[in-house]
From TrEMBL:
Highest taxon listed in the record's lineage: Bacteria
Modified-residue entries (N6-(pyridoxal phosphate)lysine), positions: K194
Protein name: Aminotransferase
SUPFAM superfamilies assigned to the protein according to its UniProt record, in alphabetical order: PLP-dependent transferases
Species, as recorded: Chromatium okenii
Database matches in Gene3D superfamilies: Type I PLP-dependent aspartate aminotransferase-like (Major domain)
Active site, renumbered: K194
GO biological process: polysaccharide biosynthetic process
Matches recorded under InterPro entries: DegT/StrS_aminotransferase (IPR000653), PyrdxlP-dep_Trfase (IPR015424), PyrdxlP-dep_Trfase_major (IPR015421)
Keyword set, alphabetical order: Aminotransferase, Pyridoxal phosphate, Transferase
Similarity comment text for this entry: Belongs to the DegT/DnrJ/EryC1 family.
GO molecular function, one term: transaminase activity
Length: 377
């Protein structure tokens, strides 16, 4: 049954996969007044300092360095650990994951993903290690935790660093606590499409104060003090307005995550009986953030993935084929030996089947029902 034309005008406008949750404007005004009053707009101002500590407290970590965006954070993380040569990573991610390697003159080596988690498959990592391999760069895809124990065991055996792209994993926890504590460094993104946003923004989670200090030098052109430059750093600093938005966001993040969880449950209930539509199993993490709601359009479904994608768009639902194409299929990567399709069958199949449906705080039942009606015919 198609009831899409019976819904209110509220949902006739385009609906995207996510909408940034924004605190009430009245909450931001006192921050703006303080910024204007003290005239410190960037370079580690008072809100920047407060925001770093507030994030440490909320996420249960000890050392965070704030950045203007997640890509700069990832580029800097690779520099901070002096990564060179080859790095094993996933083709199933946003292009920034691999781009950060190229920006540092590092060769990405792509390894296939696990069919259940869609994360880097630990069973495939060891075969990709060469004498030039210096690190592993896994991604907690859709905020679903990687097999951190197995990845760390491989890294320890071969003397490799581990940097987690945790762009989707804000507030995710496993049985031991924050997922961000794993590896040598973890990278967050606070882009407007994330569950927690400062419009643009990002961060590096460090294991100790010494590493944080080096990262803080690198994100500020390498300055150690007013007259001393200790490294060829970059301008990656977060400004005071971004930090203020982050502080205001933190007041509401638990409510936003609870709303996402409720939408996730309703989607699963209503999609369970549709042949050819497979929802990813709930992750085993102690706390999940429901960053995305992912379906896989399998052969039993009467439409192809792209046909369903176009049908959703024609009805004002701007779902995403996320991640499609694979990173390994873009021109700057597809000539690499590890990008050959024969070595990435699970990633290729997943990229051909995946659709991310809208999920965001404030999403109404009417919007969700419209999405389900389109999928159900």
């Amino acid at each position: 049954m198609d009831t899409t034309n019976q819904h209110s005008d509220e949902i006739n406008a385009a609906i995207y996969v996510t909408r940034p949750f924004l605190p009430p404007l009245a909450e931001l005004l006192p921050y703006l007044e303080q910024i204007w009053s003290n005239r410190q707009l960037t370079n580690g101002g008072p809100f920047h300092v407060q925001f770093e500590q507030a994030l440490c407290d909320y996420l249960g970590v000890e050392h965070i360095s704030l950045f203007a965006n997640g890509t700069l954070a990832l580029i800097t993380a690779l520099q901070a650990l002096r990564i060179t040569g080859e790095v094993i990573t996933t083709p199933y991610s946003f292009v920034a994951t691999a781009h950060a390697l190229l920006w540092n003159g590092i060769k990405p080596v792509f390894v296939d993903i696990h069919p259940d988690t869609l994360n880097l498959d630990p069973d495939k990592i060891e075969a990709a290690i060469t004498p030039q391999t210096t690190a592993i760069l896994p991604v907690h895809v859709y905020g679903r935790p990687c097999d951190t124990d197995r990845i760390q065991a491989i890294a320890d055996t071969y003397g490799l660093k581990v940097i987690y792209d945790a762009a989707h994993a804000f507030a995710v926890e496993d049985e031991g606590g924050s997922i961000l504590r794993h590896g040598d460094l973890s990278i967050l993104s606070f882009h407007a499409t994330k569950v927690f946003t400062t419009f643009e923004g990002g961060a590096i989670v460090s294991p100790d104060a010494k590493t944080k200090k080096r990262i803080d030098y690198l994100k500020n052109f390498g300055f150690a003090d007013e007259v001393t430059v200790v490294a060829p750093g970059i301008n990656g600093k977060m400004n005071e307005f971004q930090a203020a938005v982050g502080l205001a966001q933190l007041r509401h993040i638990d409510q936003a995550l609870a709303e996402r969880a409720a939408i996730d449950r309703r989607y699963r209930e209503m999609l369970a009986d549709i042949p050819g539509i497979r929802c990813l199993s709930p992750p085993p993490s102690r706390r999940h953030n429901h960053a995305y709601f992912v379906i896989l359009v399998e052969p039993e479904y009467p439409l192809s993935r792209d046909e369903l994608y176009l049908k959703l768009r024609e009805n004002g639902i701007y779902a995403r084929r996320y991640f499609y194409p694979l990173i390994s299929e873009f021109p700057m990567y597809r000539g690499m030996p590890s990008a050959r399709p024969a070595g990435l069958p699970i990633a290729i199949d997943t990229a051909r089947e995946v659709i991310c449906l809208p999920i965001f705080p404030g999403m109404t039942d009417e919007i969700r029902l419209k999405v389900i009606d389109i999928i159900r015919f």
